[in-house]
Amino acid sequence: MNECELVKKILNHMNAEDYKILINKVWFRGFWVPGIANQRSDKKWRPKVEFINNDVVLNRKIRKGGKHNYELLIEAMIKMAEDRNDETYLLYNVVRWITDPDSHEEIEEYFNQLENKPKDDTKNDSEEIKDTSEKDDVNVQDNLLKKENEKLKAEIDNWKNRGKKYKENIQNLKIKCSNLEQENNRVKKENGRLIRENEKTKQGKDTAVKEYNDRIIALSVENSKLKEKIRGKYKPKKNIVLSKTSGVSNPKVLCVTKNPADVLIKGYNIYFLTDLEELNKKIYTETVFDQIWYIRSGLTHADLIKVAEKYANQKILQARDWKALQKKLQGGDRL
Fold first, then answer.
1. How many other CB atoms sit within 10 Å of the CB of residue 288?
2. Which residue intervals are annotated with compositional bias (Basic and acidic residues) in the record (predicted)?
3. Is residue 172 in a domain?
4. Last residue of some domain: 101, 123, 144?
């Protein structure tokens, strides 16, 4: 006989009062009876003894790594026996079984004698438990049925109210659908009108775009000419004079600077570039420059990279300002 079988024999011979105490000790410690776990919240209801006195329930675990139901019952039985402190108490056999392995045969013989007693001598304790449990179960079931009936009535009323609201919503949706259909037809007509107008205007689009591009090109050329005139009319603010040292007659020079009008230059045909966004214009891409000057004042390193990438095959003469450029051109002598 193992521990689970010992628990089964104990349950068969417990009186109703001890059974109630035992179940109360394990009911909220994880003891679980499959199929009636939803009754755990009811503090008065407990399972009848025939519900739990079987191998399926007693060997059940509430979770992985937890204790079996029969182990929870054994712990509760030992606590009850220790509280009673009576060796003749039925549950004291559990204490002896756990603490004294030599007493197993004696305990088995004791339960065999109990089971072989004539049924007429005394009323079976398990029958007392069964009668009490059945009475409790009937009362609990009545209360549960009443509560369930009240819940069902409330739910029926709730669904009736929802039904009314759904009917109103359906009617409102029908009206909205009708309005949307009318609006959709209107949009279709408007869309057709816009398509026809678009086809009419599309015919003259290419001509208009061509005229617009031609106008932009003409304005760009005119703008370049105006810039050239402005450069020619500019009067220097500083008395700095640069003379050419190259043997080329009137060499073409691209001068990248933010201040093109601060110097008087002789002997050079200089093209000033003050806005690097204009670097790709025709005047700068098609002209072959003899020299390229880069005045760093007011410019960034990113600007220098753009110029260097554009004129990768030419040497770029860099200077901090015009005075520094003069020294580089004249070898340090001011002319």
1. 6
2. 116-136
3. no
4. 144
